[in-house]
Amino acid sequence: MKKSDVVSLILTHKFKNIPILSFVKTFAPVNIALCKYWGKRDTELNLPITNSLSLSLKQGTHTELSLHEGQHDLIILNNQIIDSDSAFAKRASAFLDLFRKDIFFKLNITSEVPIAAGLASSASGFASLTLALNQLFGFELSNQQLSILARLGSGSACRSIEPGFVEWHKGERVDGLDSFAENLKISWPDLCVELLMINDSQKEISSREGMAHTVKTSILYKSWPSQVEKDLKDLKKALLKKDFTLLGETAEANALAMHATAIGARPPIHYSLPDTLFLMQKIWQLRQQGLEIYFTQDAGPNLKLLFLKNNWETVRLHFKDYLQ
Ligand code: PMV
């Protein structure tokens, strides 16, 4: 099934190709997975092999969208016009293609986190673009439908439609209409996530390529789906009981297991840099000394630190060179 078929299923009777507003402005948060999405059952529709669970942060992407009188989309990223032949512009325009006939857009994106450095910028980018299209055309879609559409841009974008703790249900259907993210309605204001920046340049192997290669060639991938089921149970238990030790231990082990499957691929994929390992060891050492902190890591060298609010000052002291 093609992406455009799914869009038609969702927008039946709604799509008239005429915006009802001339300009819209939206925001969507980045989300950090505590249990990772790693592996697709359908690469066209970004349908995952397993469920995943994330936390949406305060930082994210602002998107301004309007019509553009030109021969192609005008895409501005962090105040700079992007070449329409660049990979970034092509990916954004391909997503816009799903929602238009013979019109072009001006898309002005401001990202509060570095692009493509494993910091979930594409998730918040596609989620805020989906929200913008919904407003511009007056689709009045539900969050569930918005989540399905955002997923077509980037899998994890479906989780950035919702704030707070979010579970992405993998779904079973071929058209993916049951594969969307849902807010878990749990609040834990004391739980903090901070980005530890090691390298903000573009990653060499995208998560898309990384997971496809891992699913195809890594013998370790076989253990991943059952590990995710167990980790999801533990994470939900930790969230309900506000058990930070269980949450931190599970999230950290889940991230390391994901990276182990990638290292087990042939040829292997290493997202870590020497500084990544240095920071992991620092975190483990501080934990041994009684400071309860954990990390998670996505498809890049940077780490995200998990800790409780009462440790913020100590964390700032130990990680000042890496905090944003
Ligand atoms: O949505 P994508 O294609 O950028 O994949 C994201 C994959 C990970 O960040 C590694 C894990 C996750 O669940 O966010």
Summarize the structure.
The chain is an alpha+beta fold. It is built from 9 helices and 12 strands.
Largest sheet, described in full?
7 strands, mixed
Low-confidence residue ranges: none
Rg value = 20 Å
**Category by helix and strand content:** alpha+beta
Small molecules held by this entry: (3R)-3-hydroxy-3-methyl-5-(phosphonooxy)pentanoic acid
Beta-strand portion reads 15-25%
- How would you sum up the global shape? globular
Extended strand count? 12
Output the number of helix runs: 9
Mean pLDDT value: 95
Describe the structure.
Helix content is 37%, strand content 22%. It is built from nine helices and twelve strands. It has helices at 3-10, 87-97, 121-137, 143-153, 207-217, 224-241, 244-263, 274-288, 312-319; strands at 23-35, 40-42, 47-48, 52-68, 74-77, 80-81, 104-111, 165-168, 181-183, 191-196, 294-297, 303-308. The strands form three sheets. Strands 1, 4, 5, 6, 7, 8 and 9 form a seven-stranded mixed beta sheet that branches. Helix 3 crosses helix 4 and helix 6 packs antiparallel against helix 7. The chain is globular, with a radius of gyration of 20 Å. Bound molecules: (3R)-3-hydroxy-3-methyl-5-(phosphonooxy)pentanoic acid (PMV). The site of (3R)-3-hydroxy-3-methyl-5-(phosphonooxy)pentanoic acid has 14 residues, from helix 3 and helix 5.
